[in-house]
Amino acid sequence: MITFIISIVALVLGYVIYGAVIERIVAPNDSPTPAVRLADGVDYVAMPTWKVFMIQFLNIAGTGPIFGAIMGIWFGPAAFLWIVLGCIFAGAVHDYLSGMLSMRHDGANLPTLIGNYLGTTARRVMLAFTVMLMLMVGAVFVYSPAIIMAGISGSQEMWIVIIFIYYLVAAMLPIDKIIGKIYPVFAVSLLFMAVALMALLLVKMPHLPELWDMGNMQPWHQSLMVGDKDGLGIVAFMQKNPLFPCLFITIACGAISGFHATQSPLMARCLKSERLGRKIFYGSMITEGLVALIWASMSSYFFYAGGWRDVVPEQEVNNFLAQVSTPDGKTLIQYFSAPTVVKLVCTGWLGAFGGILAMLGVVAAPITSGDTALRSARLIIAEAIHLPQKSIRNRLMICLPVFAATFALLMWQISSPDGFNVLWQYFGWSNQTLSVFTLWALTVYLARERKPYVVTLIPAVLMTAVCVTFLLVSPDAMGLTHWVAAPAAAAVAVISLTWFYAWHRKFAKN
Fold first, then answer.
1. Residue 33 DSSP one-character state
2. What is the pLDDT of residue 475?
């Protein structure tokens, strides 16, 4: 577990060293924040720093750093590299700057910020794009918790209704009434679960694939041969999903996620001082990266080092091995989905209390992401049509059509056999595409302010190449052969750099 331990240290040092560099570029001051100047008791509410941190962390995390890391380790130990470098140099910078920029624009939402720096057309596109992403988040994060809860008590339809009622109440009430009270509790539970699993990993100290094994993963790939069939399934998975760009789409919240920039304005309206920005925005992303590292290591142990045998009942082990060689047999990574892995690991390692934490992780966390997504949609639309949100009537005018659209999306998702998978794929790509627009807007902002814009330019070029290339090689999109990934990424990088160079020369002349 050398890679894991080094990665943990690297993330902490990233916050201390690179976080300080970015803070110096931002140069926070003591001017009154929107929470103080524009206090309205609904969305602009100054709250204690620790509470803002916990809400921001849960807003941006949810199940993202858990599910994404579990599936991301299927690409091998390269996942650790992406989590660490992506988190320090891309994700945390993206979150910090978008939060601070919102604070300096009266708590403006993401489409407004993008419009200010990329133009009116970009603002209009991002307005529709962002609201659609928020609706997808709401729909995706209703369905999976409802299925899980229906397996315990009641029906799926009943839980969908209950979750929707909660969504409506949480999206409309003042931010300190429900979100400000229950989010810190869920955030502490999520962190406690991660710390407990990290302690158990360090006690067990399993032999996991390290970074230097990336070029020689054959022993790991052959670790579960059932007859002449690869029971692990990693090789077939990698053939269908090339490491670049699919790893960068699979692990989003643990490295960089455009969804975060839609959530940062919520807390930008609750901070008492600009000087707290680094702790709240940069610090929350680093914390999320730590959670992702823990779950990536746990997943590596589960799939590569036989950890699944420690938490799966013997009969289930036999059932899996018996079906592998059948014509429609599933491999290990197909048989145990990410939510199932979470439940097995928590209940198997942490006992009954771990089962409660697992429920919080796979039920409460997505629900909290869904309600803040729909709250963001309300605020984005209200800002676009200039409708004040002080009165309940005005909030209802926006919430009702937003919830109706989310419900329609949910019904389509349920009626279609592949609805959830299709929606999740579009959500993953849309999420990272949103980060592209945010990073370019931040780069233009830094260039206009005559500040070192390279800190966002490099991540912007990388994520632009990732998102465009994913459309080219994804089997569900154009499905071109994998060898086009590298030249396509290089071409996109050159085009985007050329555009920025041309804009910068024109700006410099003016």
1. P
2. 60
Task: Report the C-alpha gap between 422 and 416 in whole angstroms.
Answer: 9
Query: What is the C-alpha to C-alpha distance for residues 108 and 130, in angstroms, rounded to an integer?
Result: 14
Question: Per DSSP, what are the bridge partners of residue 225?
Answer: 230
Report the alpha-carbon distance of residue 30 to residue 49 in Å, rounded. 16
Kindly state the tokens that stand for 301.
Answer: 């142990």
Q: What's residue 424's pLDDT? A: 64
Determine what percent of the chain falls in helix, strand and coil, rounding each to the nearest 5: 75, 0, 20
CB 132 within 8 A of CB 430: yes
pTM: 0.89
Cα 270 to Cα 32, 352, 418: the distances in Å are 12, 36, 40
Which residues are registered as beta bridge partners of 226? 229
Neighbour-count burial for 245-284, b at 16+ CB within 10 Å, e otherwise? bbbbbbbbbbbbbbbbbbbbbbbbbbbebbebbbbbbbbb
| Contact predicate 346/193, CB 8 Å | yes
Structure tokens, 360: 């919080």
Which residue has 């746990």 as its token pair? Answer: 298
Q: What is the total residue count of the chain?
A: 510
Average pLDDT over residues 97-124: 90
- Please determine, for residue 480, whether its predicted confidence score (pLDDT) is greater than 60: no
For the beta carbon of residue 422, count every other beta carbon within 10 angstroms. 14
How far from 226 is each of 21, 73, 237, 316, CA to CA, in Å?
Answer: 52, 22, 17, 16
How far CA 350 is from CA of 5, 198, 267, 286, 338, in Å, comes to: 22, 12, 33, 25, 18
151 phi/psi in degrees, rounded to 5: -70, -15
- Provide the token pair at 187: 């955030």
Cα–Cα nearest to 145, from 343, 299, 293: 343
Q: Give CA–CA dist 123/108, Å, rounded.
A: 12
Cis peptide before 28 (omega within 30 of 0): no
Per the listing, tokens 């697992």 go with: 358
CA atoms 316, 317, 322, 324: torsion sign: positive
- Going along the chain from its start, the domains and CATH numbers come out as 2-439 (1.20.1740)
Does 18 score more than 90 pLDDT?
Answer: yes
Percent of residues, the chain, with pLDDT higher than 70: 94
Residue 68's Cβ-side half-sphere holds a number of Cα atoms within 13 Å equal to 32
